[in-house]
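Q: I have 254 residues here and want to know how they pack in 3D. Can you give me a structure?
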Amino acid sequence: MPPAIIHVKDLVVDYKTRHGVVRALNGISLDVAPGECVGFIGPNGAGKSSTLKTLMGFHFPTSGTVQLFGCAPGDIHSRTRTGYLPEVSLYYPFMKGRELLELYGGLQGLSRAELKQRIPGLLERVGLGGRGETLIREYSKGMQQRLGIAQAIIAEPDLLIFDELSSGLDPVGRYDLRQVLLDLKSRGATIFFSSHELYEVEALCDRIVVINQGRIIAQESVPQLLSILGQTSLEEYFMDLIRPGIGSHSLERV
């Protein structure tokens, strides 16, 4: 077996607040193999964003092991091979879409010539054809999400990490995104994303990881899961797993 692209072992993440220390992640472990597409699902407050932010080096683990490409989170080697879309993307409103992609592409090491050649086709690919010269402040939320996807994939990274993948996208946007990700998957990209759209997870993923209250409670390949479910829907399976924790907070005082 080739080494895992994402390796997480016994990860604990605590936050200090004025009311004391709260625990967001309580000893989670998971691996994502090269070329695998994994959906990370759970209710609000389950620990999904804390996990992804720790993978990207934005939060520091309290304990446990986290590696991307065998390196610590935030290492330059892993950063240059990873495309990331945060849950909330805030872009410079006075920039044009093309200019933002030039900025992010340049940070990823692409030359001006490469960017000039790559950006028009990339905008078409994410459904923003002809909008590269539009100011970002004139973009709708869905258009900004499409632009965020474009910046994440502009350097054709080996690993893609998306937090709430289809946030703000209408059905057409979700379909277009699904085609983009299926294409990336066919080219061998490794994809790890959180989403509340269970149909999207089922359509795209090789495996599903369920988290609730800071703990991973299930990991199944999609074929195995569908075989287990039979006539039961993925939504019903998900709801059964997270009960009675529906609506509860994952953060524990420690």
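Q: Anything worth noting?
A: The longest helix spans residues 171-186. The beta strands are 6-17, 20-32, 37-41, 63-68, 82-85, 159-162, 190-194, 207-212, 215-221, 252-253.
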